[in-house]
Design a protein that fits this description.
Blueprint lengths: L3 E5 L4 H12 L6 E6 L7 E4 L2 E4 L1 E2 L10 E4 L3 H13 L3 E4 L28 E3 L3 H7 L3 H6 L2 E10 L6 H15 L19 E2 L11 H14 L5 E8 L5 E10 L5 H9 L4 E3 L11 H4 L5 E8 L8 E9 L2 H16 L1
Parallel strand pairs: 1-2, 1-6, 2-5, 6-7, 7-8, 9-11, 13-14
Antiparallel strand pairs: 3-4, 9-12, 10-11, 12-15, 14-15
Helix pairs in contact: 1-9, 3-9
Length: 335
């Protein structure tokens, strides 16, 4: 049977990663259709040795399409994903539009692939920080139920798209040359040589949207709202890999050796934990690879009965945090 695939938002940072992954993973599509806004429509791109013309997204874009990967704004997804689903096309959506919809499965293939069975034409890809944080936590939770998780993130600018990445480069270059930087556009604050609270809106409880996404999405993916979760999300001057400090409190004792043993056999994870060499996960190493790096695995001595573990992780925001996770979902759909 033919497998016709559409990509919505192909010109964006995540859309470009889709193209690379299709080729690298030999995705078994029969044909592709590349969609974007009117601003990009008519431009050409080379993919798989062929020239494709980017088409403007419209209500007829999904006729005869089997799978559509969306990497656009939430408003675009809300408008067009139901149209695609009605046309018989299964949507994997990278925006936040449907993540907390009870009728839409929120999928991390290493954790809850079984939830795909309940989809009704739309599948949600979780937030990048959520994915990168919980892939290494899941096998530990399965072995020893998690009671509480405290997360501090160090988030790359790629989460805000190409413009943010180019802005960080331009600001860094200007500052190193002793020049004035232009007024920031991608962020409220200067991102070069600076660290600031994640630029999402602050709610009445004092937490920003990014922080609450991690709480609610983890509860949904783990199917366990009883876990106490608190987050602080911070933007750092890194191009494309997020890092997270994760503190875990378990129901029963758990020591670092057990954690390492569990993670060594878990999919999508590389242990980087060289205490003697003082070498641990770094965004430079995580950038460009699909696995999440995990290290600084140690006992939290402030939690009694050896029920606490600290660790530090890094993962590519554009890959496992976005495009790769979506492609893995699409691969499950094909199987």
């Amino acid at each position: 049977m033919p497998l016709n695939v559409a990509v919505v938002g192909v010109t964006g940072a995540v859309g470009q990663e889709f193209l690379k992954l299709f080729e690298e993973r030999n995705f078994p599509a029969t044909s592709y259709k590349f969609l974007a806004s009117a601003r990009s429509a008519g431009k050409t791109l080379e993919f798989g040795g062929k020239q494709y013309t980017i088409e403007e997204l419209n209500e007829n874009s999904f006729v005869d399409m089997n799978i559509a990967l969306f990497s656009a704004s939430g408003s675009i997804s809300k408008q067009y994903a139901p149209i695609a689903a009605k046309a018989g096309c299964t949507v994997v959506d990278n925006s936040s539009a449907f993540r907390m919809d009870d009728e839409v499965p929120l999928i991390v293939p290493e954790i809850n692939p079984h939830a795909l069975l309940d989809h009704h034409g739309i599948i949600a890809n979780p937030n990048c920080s959520t994915i990168i944080g919980i892939v290494p936590v899941w096998p530990l939770h399965c072995a020893n139920p998690l009671k509480r998780m405290v997360v501090s993130t160090y988030q790359a600018v790629s989460g805000a798209g190409w413009q943010a990445m180019e802005e960080l480069k331009a600001q860094s270059l200007a500052l190193l040359e002793g020049k004035e930087i232009e007024e920031p556009k991608a962020f409220q604050h200067q991102c070069a040589f600076n660290v600031f609270s994640h630029d999402s809106a602050i709610g009445e409880n004092g937490y920003n949207v990014e922080e609450m996404k991690m709480v609610h999405e983890t509860h949904k993916i783990f199917n366990d709202p009883s876990i106490a979760i608190t987050c602080t999300c911070i933007r750092v001057p890194v191009l494309r890999a997020h890092s997270e400090s994760i503190n875990l409190e378990f129901t029963n004792p758990m020591d670092p050796d057990e954690v390492v043993d569990l993670l060594l056999s878990a999919p999508g994870i590389d242990i980087v934990d060289d205490r003697e060499g003082n070498y641990f996960p770094m965004p430079l190493d995580a950038s460009g690879q699909g696995n999440i790096l995990v290290g600084r695995i140690r006992q939290d001595e402030s939690i009694p009965d050896k029920r606490g573990i600290n660790m530090f992780v890094s993962g590519d925001q554009l890959l496992k945090g976005a495009a790769l996770n979506a492609i893995q979902i699409a691969e499950l759909l094909v199987k």
